[in-house]
């Protein structure tokens, strides 16, 4: 549009000059118009070249050396293999899928063991000349241990699965005792309170 306006102005100037009037002005205007056209044409070509370069694929050359080494370059070389890449190509690395850890298992409820002595009663007095007595224990809780262990006078005396202990040859006097619950490896799981009993025996002198 700008060039057309210049041509119209130039034509008008030539027509108004008549018989050769204003020749210098007309020539200068003509040269200026020609230069402007050339500049605009050059700018348009440069824009087209830039646009084409931006949208054209990038060429990379693969060069294999005599020692077998491989080099990549953007400059053409002898015996180079051209590799075309789309300019829109992007290196996309897919992140490894992380598997969430499994939910923590709830802690197993702690088992509660209980053992009580059914007989004899605390501070009981037992009369037996042969030193015989029976200690009986039981587990009132829902959780049961496999083994009862009798601790008599601060020492393990016997173990069984019934909780009933029949003793003989016990000397007269005061004796302490308790019953423990254990597993198969001997670990103590529960214990009854420590109790005391008194064993009495008749004197042979009195009977005579």
From TrEMBL:
Keywords, A to Z, come to: Signal
List every stretch annotated Disordered.
29-54
The region annotated as signal peptide is 1-26
Q: Which domain of life is it from?
A: Bacteria
Q: What is the official name of this protein in its record?
A: DUF4124 domain-containing protein
What is the organism field in this record? Alteromonas marina
Q: What is the lineage of its organism?
A: Bacteria, Pseudomonadati, Pseudomonadota, Gammaproteobacteria, Alteromonadales
């Amino acid at each position: 549009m700008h060039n057309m306006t210049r041509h119209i102005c130039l034509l008008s100037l030539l027509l108004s000059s008549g018989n050769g009037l204003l020749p210098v002005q007309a020539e200068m205007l003509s040269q200026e118009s020609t230069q402007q056209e050339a500049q605009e044409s050059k700018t348009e070509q440069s824009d087209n070249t830039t646009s084409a370069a931006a949208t054209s694929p990038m060429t990379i050359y693969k060069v294999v050396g005599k020692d077998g080494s491989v080099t990549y370059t953007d400059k053409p070389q002898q015996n180079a293999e051209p590799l075309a890449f789309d300019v829109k190509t992007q290196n996309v690395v897919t992140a490894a899928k992380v598997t969430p850890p499994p939910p923590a298992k709830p802690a197993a409820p702690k088992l509660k063991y209980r053992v009580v002595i059914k007989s004899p009663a605390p501070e009981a007095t037992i009369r037996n000349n042969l030193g015989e007595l029976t200690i009986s224990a039981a587990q009132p809780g829902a959780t049961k241990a496999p083994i009862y262990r009798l601790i008599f006078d601060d020492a393990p005396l016997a173990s069984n699965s019934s909780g009933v202990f029949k003793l003989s040859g016990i000397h007269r006097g005061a004796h302490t005792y308790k019953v423990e619950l254990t597993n198969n490896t001997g670990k103590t799981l529960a214990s009854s309170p420590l109790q005391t009993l008194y064993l009495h025996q008749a004197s042979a002198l009195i009977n005579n």
